[in-house]
TrEMBL record:
It is an enzyme of class 1 (oxidoreductase). Transmembrane segments: none annotated. It comes from Pelistega ratti. One of its GO terms (molecular function) is thiamine pyrophosphate binding. E1 component of the 2-oxoglutarate dehydrogenase (OGDH) complex which catalyzes the decarboxylation of 2-oxoglutarate, the first step in the conversion of 2-oxoglutarate to succinyl-CoA and CO(2). This is 2-oxoglutarate dehydrogenase E1 component. GO terms for cellular component: cytosol; oxoglutarate dehydrogenase complex. GO terms for biological process: glycolytic process; tricarboxylic acid cycle. Homodimer. Part of the 2-oxoglutarate dehydrogenase (OGDH) complex composed of E1 (2-oxoglutarate dehydrogenase), E2 (dihydrolipoamide succinyltransferase) and E3 (dihydrolipoamide dehydrogenase); the complex contains multiple copies of the three enzymatic components (E1, E2 and E3).
Length: 953
């Protein structure tokens, strides 16, 4: 008998029903046996389909083309033979059932039992009701195709069975969001994992007891601290104890699937619990911190719920290294730091899957802080991807104590931001710890399978206030009346296990007593900590610990070697066609290497990079324009002008220096400052032998990353003992480009300087940047380096230097007078400056023939080189005036920082004055004419100032 499907010219299954056909065809492509015999026979007979847009469609083409041909065929044959009414009715109902299944996959999450407080009624979703599709209870025992589901191995199910399976899978303790994912394979994988188990875990007795043990430890620690250290802040995990169940699953299941390192970033809530019960920090050490003891050797230190920790724990899959990142109170700012650290570890191992970044969020911060979005946007990029991050949300449903949940966000869920990268989200009721473990394992497997971010949103509550000194009922009376009546997740699960016969009636209480005894003794409770384990991939920071500050380093490179390196970085393949401007630049650089031209900034930088990678150091430079350079001075990445595709035609000379060289990576970053700089900080804290550089497009743009600068770069060593050799390149210079393109805010960095915490420099020529970059790696010292790089000086002929200054010199913290016509005993005024303004002053002096004026350049602003500066200033014993000159307004730039250092080194009777722009609320003027007027005035002031003398020594 001929079936309706075989009547392909008039089938009701095409046209408006293409989506159903597509589902059947996808199932057929995966497994021909998964569809009904009628569909299988139909698809088997598709030797050729009608052409689509002039192209013939065959069976082995992608399903999209096939479905398009289905639709085209249906349109062409709409008026042909009528289908039997009985078949039409059955098919129509089947389509309605398919729509019901799709609705549960998309909307079932909104009907799931997710709130342990049960404060609101479950939302009525019409699309989840039979009546929405014209189905009734009379249809429940009718049989329908189940070939596009994973509930059963059979090809059919009754509607009642399908409906029950849908509700169990999508509307119980786990609410899943994944239908927004565009990759069909990922969606099918999640559907299979959820539907084949009905989202219901099947744990052994031992696994269930372990889950209860994790809950007991989580609750036990909080209650112990609450009674022993009354009123002290600890940001309790009570109400969210299932988080420890989740992290236990991350560690132990991670070990089973090949994870060797886990880098965790989290804010305050539950952090102490994580340290003790997952990472194996000794309780006695934590108690000592509560009692006022602190780490030795830190100039400042930090509160205990900001501190990081690392350990190696034993799992059934082998040792796993755990690292909890240090975190300030800026919550989500730790996200990119963790990603950068994870990326460095992955590159060290050449294995993405072996290193897992885990980010733990609060619900309000996840939805509210912009760095979350910036970091998510890095996830699938080539330069910043980490093979997927597992996100765990401790969802208190309140944010901070006084917030009204209605004002917490503009999205339905706090996790909606992750849909921008199509990450699946598994919302789970925190009062169902088995579901939490199941969802976490599913997330871990998804990350391992697809290398993509995934979210576990543990919907729980917060038993106490934002901190232990808070009284949440003042602003949340209704919520906390409900919370006060809640028996606790541990008790609920313990009662369940007793009822199941997994434990005896006294079993849960015995676990509580055992944990309390461990706390009284200050003993470990976590997985076995491997105290003697040493991974072959661990980095030894010993050479850098306790290193004394020194400005000295042997950074010179023999001339012949410089010439060889110059030849390598200016040679390109004969088949490569560079842009004409690049071709000239390479020719000029070759001439510089031969000593035929003075060396400019770009060549000095390139020779520094080439010499470092040749010595085995790696270099990673990122920023929005670093391949070419914002001011087209770098050209580290060359582009073939005859290339046909995006993924070819690129040549990087610095990757072709020698056979055994270090790596050179230049990454044009996404349009982000905060997340990218945080990423590079995390990378540099993990890789001391890589010159890690972040370059701002304009130095002003670092304003968007100020939290990273303040809380990590400037103070990370003082607070946490974290050494870091990150280098910042911040283009700075007043060239009339307006208030957002002039100042890198030198004053802000100098205000952060103390305890030799970082280096702040403003080099003025190519030799200086050459020696400075080499010094950053050659010295056994890892301190952040902030370089205020030039703009106009990149091409200023006066800033050129002979190549001999690279083969004989070193970085000079102070550059004294270089004009041999200036006689020291004739000098009446000494101008002291930093940066571009030096060349303006030198030109003005020449125009004025002012040979009684000497100029001293401060190249290193911090640490201030007192000895070098004093030696230069002492040469001018007859000078009565010392003038600090700067481009920046008086209330900005180095003036307020540096005047004290200048005074300290002046001679008796000398007077100190200031020359520069007047104080301003804006970094620079926006009108070019006014800029030029100001520039002319400050130069004039430098040479003629008599008023405004500040101090007489």
């Amino acid at each position: 008998m001929t079936t309706a499907i075989e009547k392909s010219n008039n089938s009701y299954l095409f046209g408006s029903n293409v989506s159903y056909v597509e589902e059947q065809y996808e199932a057929y492509l995966d497994n021909p046996e998964s569809v009904t015999p009628e569909w299988r026979a139909y698809f088997d007979n598709l030797s050729h389909l009608p052409a689509v847009d002039g192209k013939e469609t065959t069976r082995d083409q992608n399903h999209t083309s096939v479905i398009a041909s289905f639709a085209q065929r249906a349109r062409a044959n709409t008026l042909l033979t009528q289908v039997q009414p009985a078949n039409l009715e059955v098919a129509g109902k089947q389509l309605k059932v398919q729509s019901l299944i799709a609705a549960y996959r998309s909307l079932g999450v909104r009907y799931a039992h997710l709130d342990p407080l049960k404060r609101s009624e479950r939302e009525d979703i019409p699309e989840l009701n039979l009546s929405f599709y014209g189905l009734t209870d009379a249809d429940l025992d009718e049989v329908y195709s189940a070939t596009n589901t994973y509930f059963t191995t059979k090809s059919t199910m009754t509607l009642r069975e399908i409906l029950n399976a849908l509700r169990d899978t999508y509307c119980r303790s786990i609410g899943s969001e994944f239908m927004h994912i565009s990759d069909p394979a990922q969606k099918r994988w999640i559907q299979e994992r959820l539907e084949s188990t009905l989202s219901t875990p099947s744990f052994s007795k031992e696994e269930k007891v372990n889950i209860l043990k994790q809950l007991t430890e989580a609750e036990g620690l909080e209650r112990y601290l609450h009674t022993k250290y009354v009123g002290q802040k600890r940001f309790s995990l009570e109400g969210g104890e299932s988080f420890i169940v989740s992290m236990d699953e991350v560690v132990n299941h991670g070990g089973k699937i090949g994870v060797k390192e886990i880098v965790v970033g989290m804010a305050h809530r539950g952090r102490l619990n994580m340290l003790i019960n997952i990472m194996g920090k000794r309780p006695a050490d934590l108690f000592a911190e509560f009692e006022g003891k602190h780490a030795e050797g830190l100039t400042d230190g930090d509160v205990k719920y900001h501190n990081g920790f690392s350990s190696d724990v034993a799992t059934s899959g082998g040792p796993v290294h755990l690292s909890l990142a240090f975190n300030p109170s800026h919550l989500e700012i730790v996200n990119p730091v963790v990603e950068g650290s994870a990326r460095a570890r992955q590159e060290r191992r050449s294995d993405t899957k072996a290193v897992l970044p885990v980010l733990v969020h609060g619900d309000a911060a996840f939805a509210g802080q912009g760095v979350v979005m910036e970091t998510l946007n890095l996830a699938q990029t080539r330069g910043y991807g980490t093979g997927g991050t597992v996100h765990v949300v401790i969802n208190n449903q309140i944010g901070f104590t006084t917030s009204d949940p209605r004002d917490a966000r503009s999205t339905l869920y706090c996790t909606d931001v992750v849909k921008m990268i199509e990450a699946p989200v598994f919302h789970v009721n925190g009062d169902d710890p088995e579901a939490v473990a199941f969802a976490t394992r599913l997330a871990m497997d998804y990350r391992a399978e697809f290398g993509h971010d995934v979210v576990v949103d543990i919907v729980c509550f917060r038993k106490l206030g934002h901190n232990e000194q808070d009284t949440p009922a003042l602003t949340q009376p209704l919520m906390y009346k409900t919370i006060d009546k809640h028996p606790g997740t541990r008790r609920l699960y313990a009662d369940k296990l007793v009822a199941q016969g997994v434990l005896g009636t006294d079993g849960p209480d015995n676990l509580v007593k055992e944990y309390r005894a461990l706390m009284d003794k200050g003993q470990d409770s976590a997985e076995p900590v491997l105290t003697d384990y040493k991974s072959e991939f661990a980095v030894d920071w010993t050479p850098f610990i306790g290193a004394k500050w020194s400005d000295k380093a042997d950074t010179a490179v023999p001339l012949k070697e410089l010439q060889r390196l110059g030849e390598r970085i200016t040679t390109i393949p004969t088949t490569f066609t560079p842009h004409k401007l690049v071709e000239k630049l390479l020719a000029d650089r070759a001439a510089m290497a031969r000593g035929e031209m003075n060396l400019d900034w770009g060549m000095g930088e390139h020779l520094a990079f080439a010499s470092l990678v040749n010595a085995g150091y790696d270099i990673r430079i990122t920023g929005e324009d670093v391949g070419r350079g914002t001011f087209t001075h770098r050209h580290a990445v060359l582009h073939d002008q005859k290339r046909e595709r995006w993924d070819d035609g690129v040549y990087v000379p610095l990757q072709h220096i020698s056979d055994d060289q270090g790596s050179f990576t230049a990454i044009d970053s996404v349009l982000s400052e905060e997340a990218v700089l945080g990423f590079e900080y995390g990378y540099a804290c993990t890789e001391p032998y890589t010159l890690t550089i972040w370059e701002a497009q304009f130095g002003d743009f670092a304003n968007g990353a100020q939290v990273v600068i303040d809380q990590f770069i400037a103070s990370g060593e003082a607070k946490w003992g974290r050494q870091c050799g990150l280098t910042l390149m911040l283009p700075h210079g007043y060239e009339g480009q307006g208030p957002e393109h002039s100042s890198a805010r030198i004053e802000r960095y100098l205000q952060l300087c103390a305890d030799n915490n970082m280096q702040v420099v403003q080099p003025t020529n190519g030799a200086q940047i050459f020696h400075l970059l080499r010094r950053q790696m050659i010295r056994k010292l890892r301190k952040p380096l902030v370089i205020f790089t030039p703009k106009s000086l990149l091409r200023n002929k006066d800033a050129g230097v002979p190549i001999s200054e690279l083969s004989e010199g070193t970085f000079r913290t102070v550059i004294g007078e270089v004009d041999h016509n200036i006689k020291a005993d004739k000098v009446k005024r000494v101008l002291v400056c930093s940066g571009k303004v030096y060349y303006d002053l030198a030109r003005a002096r020449q125009e004025r023939d002012a040979q009684d004026v000497a100029i001293i350049r401060i190249e290193q602003l911090y640490p201030f080189a007192h000895k070098a500066f004093a030696e230069e200033l002492a040469k001018y014993k007859n000078a009565k005036e010392v003038v600090w000159v700067q481009d920046e307004p008086q209330n900005q730039g180095p003036w307020f920082y540096i005047q004290h250092h200048i005074l300290e080194n002046m001679q008796e009777g000398q007077k100190l004055a200031f020359a520069g722009r007047a104080a301003s609320s804006s970094p620079a003027v926006g009108y070019l004419a006014k800029h030029q007027e100001q520039q002319k005035a400050l130069i004039e002031q430098a040479f003629t100032v008599r008023k405004g003398i500040l101090v007489t020594k």
